[in-house]
Structure to design on (650 residues):
């Protein structure tokens, strides 16, 4: 599954791959290292 | 209890109920005299797990020479069968008639006051590190396999031979940090025991084969314990070559089965080549595969490396965050025999103190329930990391909170939609009063930061004691856990005119209340959505995980928040205040009308 995330500090948008039953992981903006990262959308990967 | 597995644990400190499944041994351990006649006649031959597959065992066997009880058991997964009986030679051979192939597993329930978790670890499997050729080349073995080869009670009676031709190796290499201290291919942590294990092994080999050439390939040697440096010096003095560099690849001569290694020696800055008879991979230690299952039944959390998390790394290193549970050995982190024994002694002592006292003294910060408001919805029970809350959702009799098990994180109070959970200390009223006080003057110039007691607040303390500079516009409000920060506290801060609000707690996996901060992130997600719907920029609510050691990060975050605050306009703040005041009034009106509808009609 893919998750679209947006950093609420610098506005950077990025995508991460997550396993369906994965335990909650810390979200860190790869650009500014902020944890204020909001889930924008999530979608299943094709196939 | 041997051959047993813990299936379920319920209860709390002083009153744990543990359900144990005792696997069928198929041999009466009290009657068995270990005469070995069953194993002699058993036709099933399997690799001996204890001897790392270097020798074989039968389906009727003793796991190892020092096994307790010293009684045989039948490996029913590989036995030719008891239903219908296909072989049963062991039954015929047993003079004491203590083999019963129809024996069944037993479920036992025990009541205990405290629990010590000492489930150990597993060695790292280096198969995935293809460059070392483990399993491709017979003479590349792991350090655990080497232990069996050199052990007096091992498959070769302690005679060191290499697997390919059973000859004594003359040139032996050790590669350190296999699967340890790597970010991508293995584990990022140091496994603690491998350096000294190799030093010990090199001395053992030297004792038996003084003419053997030994090479240790390492990136750093960590000989930090009492007497360890002396041992390392002894090893160097007997002629073991220590080469600073990790080989990139091992290749095998197909005729001689000798191994060739190419390594960059970072001391001499040269690429060197070695031909060796045998290579030992010093593999790291990893958490057991069933660790997740164990943590779920014991309500425990683990650190990012997968080992169990202690209540406090310095002050309570043998205690689990759940009261009454203690750790001993590698279940908590990789450690050597001495450290494991020390921790086991400490765990036993900590446990005895509780058992002998007969009473438990706990923190006064606890959750209480107002049964008049409780609707038995069960959310509090679901979010409690300690399983301290029980509720019968169908019977709707209200929740029960076990004070001895409650650690006072306040997540239940924050999640309760009906304000039915009241905290003793850090009450809603106290926290809201702090919000009011913080924003009494010039609220638009203020940032309200809700910090957890254990990590974020301590991070702020460190920033202060380190004399790090950060803007003075932030007002800190301490809660025991970030999970305690109710949605209403944040909305109140915005309604009072705060420009920016920070919600901060321990890093995920480091929460002092097991996983209470998981609810913080879920709440923040929900709040960001709600703020957006209300026309308030979600960016004004910030979420940051700050550990007690991250003073510099704390100061940096405060500087970012101040930059953010300066961009919030007075009109934006005014709009927020109006929207939230309207929302609050409509909620209050709804609540009033709901309570009127619930009141019984006058007769």
């Amino acid at each position: 599954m893919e998750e679209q995330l947006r950093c609420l500090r610098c506005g950077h948008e990025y995508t991460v791959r997550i396993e369906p039953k994965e335990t909650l992981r810390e979200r860190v903006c790869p650009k500014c290292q902020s944890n204020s990262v909001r889930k924008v959308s999530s979608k299943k990967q094709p196939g | 209890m041997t051959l047993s597995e813990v299936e379920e644990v319920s209860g709390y400190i002083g009153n744990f109920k543990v359900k144990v499944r005792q696997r069928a041994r198929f041999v009466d351990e009290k009657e068995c005299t270990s005469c070995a006649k069953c194993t002699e006649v058993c036709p099933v031959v399997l690799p001996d797990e204890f001897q790392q597959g270097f020798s074989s065992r039968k389906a009727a066997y003793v796991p190892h020479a020092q096994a307790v009880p010293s009684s045989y058991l039948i490996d029913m997964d590989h036995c030719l069968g008891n239903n219908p009986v296909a072989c049963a030679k062991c039954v015929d051979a047993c003079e004491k008639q203590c083999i019963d192939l129809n024996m069944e597993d037993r479920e036992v329930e025990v009541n205990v006051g405290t629990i010590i978790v000492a489930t150990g670890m597993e060695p790292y499997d280096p198969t995935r590190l293809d460059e070392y050729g483990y399993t491709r080349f017979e003479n590349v073995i792991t350090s655990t396999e080497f232990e069996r080869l050199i052990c007096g009670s091992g498959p070769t009676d302690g005679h060191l031979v290499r697997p390919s031709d059973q000859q004594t190796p003359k040139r032996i290499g050790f590669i350190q940090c296999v699967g340890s201290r790597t970010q991508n291919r293995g584990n990022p942590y140091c496994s603690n025991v491998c350096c000294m294990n190799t030093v010990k092994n090199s001395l053992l080999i030297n004792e038996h084969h003084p003419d053997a050439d030994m090479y240790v390939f390492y990136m750093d040697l960590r000989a930090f314990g009492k007497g360890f440096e002396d041992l390392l010096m002894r090893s160097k003095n007997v002629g073991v070559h220590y080469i600073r560099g990790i080989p990139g690849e091992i290749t095998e001569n197909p005729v001689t089965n000798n191994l060739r290694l190419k390594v960059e020696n970072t001391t001499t800055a040269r690429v060197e080549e070695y031909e060796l008879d045998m290579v030992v991979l010093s593999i790291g230690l990893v958490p057991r595969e069933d660790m997740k299952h164990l943590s779920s039944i014991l309500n425990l959390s683990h650190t990012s490396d997968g080992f169990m998390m202690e209540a406090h790394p310095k002050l309570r290193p043998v205690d689990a965050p759940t009261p009454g549970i203690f750790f001993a050995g590698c279940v908590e982190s990789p450690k050597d025999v001495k450290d494991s024994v020390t921790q086991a002694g400490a765990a036993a002592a900590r446990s005895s103190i509780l058992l002998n006292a007969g009473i438990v003294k706990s923190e006064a910060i606890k959750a209480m329930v107002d049964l008049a408001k409780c609707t038995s919805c069960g959310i509090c029970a679901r979010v409690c990391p300690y399983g301290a809350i029980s509720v019968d959702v169908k019977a709707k009799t209200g929740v029960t909170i076990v004070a001895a098990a409650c650690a006072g994180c306040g997540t239940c109070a924050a999640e309760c939609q009906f304000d039915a959970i009241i905290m003793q200390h850090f009450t809603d009223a106290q926290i809201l009063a702090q919000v009011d006080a913080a924003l009494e003057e010039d609220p638009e110039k203020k940032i309200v930061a809700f910090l957890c007691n254990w990590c974020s607040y301590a991070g702020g303390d460190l920033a202060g004691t380190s004399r790090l500079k950060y803007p003075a516009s932030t007002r800190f409000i301490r809660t025991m856990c970030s999970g305690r920060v109710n949605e209403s506290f944040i909305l109140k801060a915005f309604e009072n005119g705060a420009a920016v609000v920070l919600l901060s707690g321990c890093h995920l996996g480091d929460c002092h209340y097991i996983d209470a901060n998981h609810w913080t992130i879920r709440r923040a997600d929900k709040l960001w959505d709600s703020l957006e719907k209300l026309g308030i920029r979600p960016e004004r609510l910030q979420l940051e995980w700050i550990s007690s050691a991250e003073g510099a990060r704390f100061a940096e975050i405060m500087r970012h928040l101040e930059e953010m605050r300066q961009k919030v306009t007075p009109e934006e703040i005014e709009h927020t205040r109006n929207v939230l005041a309207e929302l609050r009034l409509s909620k209050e009106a709804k609540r009033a009308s709901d309570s009127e509808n619930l009141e019984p009609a006058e007769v």
